[in-house]
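Quick review question:
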C-alpha cells in the first residue's frame, strides 16, 4: 500500500511539474492551446504515416543496438528484444524520475531470460552512446550554423543587426565547444567503460568501504558490472552499436523535420538544421532527473532554447515543439502497447 501511494505521489508531482512548466511557456509566449489543437487536427494523414514509418525505423535501430550489445550466448531473438525495448521506451518516457528505465531489465529478463547484469550493461552503454552521438552531432551543427547564419538562410536571421548576428555566432561557437568536450569525455568512458568502473572500485577500497557489509556488497556489484560492461559490445560490437546510434539519431532528426511544416513553419524555410537544434536541445532537457509527465514542459523548454540559436520567434518554436511532441507521444503509446501485446503473445523461454 505504501509503495503504491508513493508511486501515485511521484506521478502526481510529475503531472504538476508538466502542467506548471507548460502554463509558463504558453503564458509567456502567447500561444493559444486551441490554436495548437486545431493545427494538430489538421495534420495530414500522409504526413503522419511518413513520420510513423520513420519512428518505426528508430525503434528497429534501437532494438538492433540492444541486440548487438547483448553477449551472443545471452541474446534473445530480435522479435523478443524489439517487443521489450518498445514497451520499455513507453515506460521510460511516461514514468516520472526516470524510474521507467529499470523496466528494460524486467522486460528483457521476462521475455528473453537476459541476466540483469547484461541488461544493465547494454542499457548503460546505449545511453552513453546516445549522449556521445547527440553531443557530437550538436557540436557539428552549432559550429556549422554560423556559416548558415552569415549566409542569411532565413528571414529572421536577415533582420538581425551585425552586433546581434556576431553575438549569436559567438554563442554558437561556445556551445559547440562544450558539446565537443562532453562528447569526447563520453566517448572515452564508452571505450574504457570497464576500466572506469574498476577505477571507481579502487577509490572505494582506498576509503575502506569494503569493511562494512553495505560497502562490500557495493564493491561486489561494481566488479560484476565492470565485467558485464566489458562483455557489452565486445568483439567489434561497440563500433557497430556506435554506427547504429548515429543512424538512429539521423532518423530522429528527420522524423522531427517531417513535422515542422505541419505546425506553422514557413514552407520556404529549411527544416533540417532547425530540427537538429530543436530536437537535440529538447532531448538534453529531458535528461534532467526531474521533469514533467512524458517530458512535457522540459522538452518544449529545450526545444525553444535550441531554436533561439536559429533566431526563431519563441511563439513559432513552442507551437512546433508541442505539436511534434504530441505526435511523438501518440506514436510511443502505439508502439508501447504493441510491444506489451507482443510480449504477452510470446511463449515463456522455459516453454520453448
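Suggested answer, residue by residue:
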Amino acid at each position: 500500500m505504501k509503495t503504491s501511494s508513493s508511486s501515485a505521489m511521484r506521478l502526481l508531482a510529475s503531472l504538476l511539474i508538466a502542467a506548471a512548466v507548460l502554463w509558463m511557456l504558453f503564458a509567456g509566449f502567447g500561444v493559444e492551446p486551441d490554436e495548437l489543437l486545431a493545427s494538430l487536427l489538421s495534420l495530414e494523414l500522409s504526413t503522419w504515416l511518413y513520420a510513423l514509418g520513420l519512428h518505426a525505423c528508430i525503434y528497429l535501430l534501437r532494438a538492433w543496438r540492444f541486440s548487438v550489445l547483448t553477449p551472443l550466448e545471452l541474446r534473445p531473438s530480435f522479435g523478443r528484444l524489439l517487443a521489450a525495448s518498445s514497451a520499455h521506451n513507453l515506460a521510460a518516457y511516461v514514468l516520472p524520475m526516470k524510474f521507467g528505465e529499470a523496466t528494460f531489465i524486467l522486460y528483457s529478463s521476462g521475455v528473453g531470460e537476459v541476466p540483469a547484469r547484461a541488461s544493465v550493461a547494454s542499457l548503460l552503454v546505449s545511453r552513453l552512446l546516445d549522449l556521445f552521438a547527440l553531443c557530437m552531432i550538436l557540436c557539428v551543427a552549432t559550429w556549422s550554423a554560423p556559416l548558415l547564419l552569415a549566409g542569411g538562410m532565413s528571414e529572421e536571421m536577415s533582420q538581425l543587426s551585425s552586433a546581434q548576428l556576431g553575438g549569436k555566432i559567438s554563442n554558437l561557437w561556445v556551445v559547440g565547444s562544450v558539446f565537443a568536450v562532453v562528447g569526447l569525455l563520453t566517448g572515452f568512458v564508452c571505450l574504457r567503460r570497464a576500466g572506469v568502473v574498476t577505477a571507481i572500485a579502487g577509490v572505494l577500497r582506498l576509503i575502506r568501504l569494503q569493511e562494512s557489509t553495505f560497502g562490500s556488497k557495493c564493491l561486489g556489484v561494481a566488479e560484476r558490472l565492470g565485467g558485464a560492461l566489458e562483455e557489452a559490445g565486445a568483439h567489434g560490437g561497440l563500433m557497430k552499436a556506435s554506427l547504429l546510434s548515429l543512424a538512429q539519431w539521423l532518423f530522429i532528426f528527420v522524423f522531427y523535420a517531417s513535422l515542422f511544416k505541419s505546425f506553422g513553419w514557413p514552407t520556404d524555410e529549411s527544416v533540417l538544421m532547425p530540427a537538429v537544434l530543436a530536437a537535440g536541445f529538447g532531448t538534453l532537457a529531458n535528461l534532467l532527473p526531474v521533469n514533467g509527465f512524458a517530458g512535457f514542459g522540459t522538452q518544449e523548454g529545450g526545444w525553444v532554447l535550441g531554436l533561439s540559436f536559429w533566431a526563431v520567434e519563441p511563439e513559432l518554436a513552442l507551437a512546433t515543439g508541442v505539436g511534434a511532441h504530441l505526435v511523438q507521444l501518440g506514436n510511443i503509446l502505439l508502439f508501447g502497447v504493441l510491444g506489451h501485446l507482443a510480449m504477452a503473445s510470446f511463449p515463456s523461454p522455459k516453454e520453448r
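Why it works: The chain is about 80% helix and 0% strand. Residues 215 and 277 are 43 Å apart (CA to CA).
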